[in-house]
Amino acid sequence: MSANMTPSERRGAYNRANARAIAETAQILRTVAQHDSHTDPFRGDLGKAQASVLDAVSRHVATLPREITTEALAVVTAVDRLTGNRRTTGS
């Protein structure tokens, strides 16, 4: 299917997939932060702040410098490794 896509369509699909992965990771961090806040309020606040940053990145993936998206995706990879989540590319 991706063979029939124009470069612009492929870039758009790539950006949407990245945005989705980053947003899902933000939700995971938010859930963990909520649990952490019961035992360590500062750790909970840190997790909520990290989730907020990732949410902002996920909403602007297409317009951010590539370096920012790359670093956000490194967080996605780290959280996926920690949780045992395996992402598929959908192809």
Quick structural summary:
This protein has 91 residues and is mostly helical. The chain contains 3 helices and no strands.
How is this fold's topology laid out?
Elements: H1 7-39, H2 41-59, H3 66-83
Helix pairs in contact: 1-2, 1-3
Structure, explained:
The structure is a single chain. This protein is mainly alpha-helical and 91 residues long. It has one domain (2-82). 77% of the residues lie in helices and 0% in strands. The protein is built from three helices and no strands. The chain has helices at residues 7-39, 41-59, 66-83. α1 (7-39) packs antiparallel against α2 (41-59) and α1 (7-39) packs across α3. It is elongated and about 50 Å long. It starts with 6 loop residues before the first helix and ends in an 8-residue tail after the last helix. The model has no long low-confidence stretch (mean pLDDT 92).
The major β-sheet equals: none
User: How would you classify the helix and strand content by structural class?
Assistant: mainly alpha
Count of discrete domains = 1
Uncertain runs with pLDDT below 50, 5 residues or more?
none
Number of H/I helices: 3
| Chain-averaged pLDDT | 92
Total count of strands = 0
The amount of helix comes to: over 70%
Termini distance?
A: 8 Å
Cα-atom radius of gyration: 15 Å
Order of helices and strands: HHH
Shape: elongated
Taken as a percent bin, the fraction of beta residues is under 5%
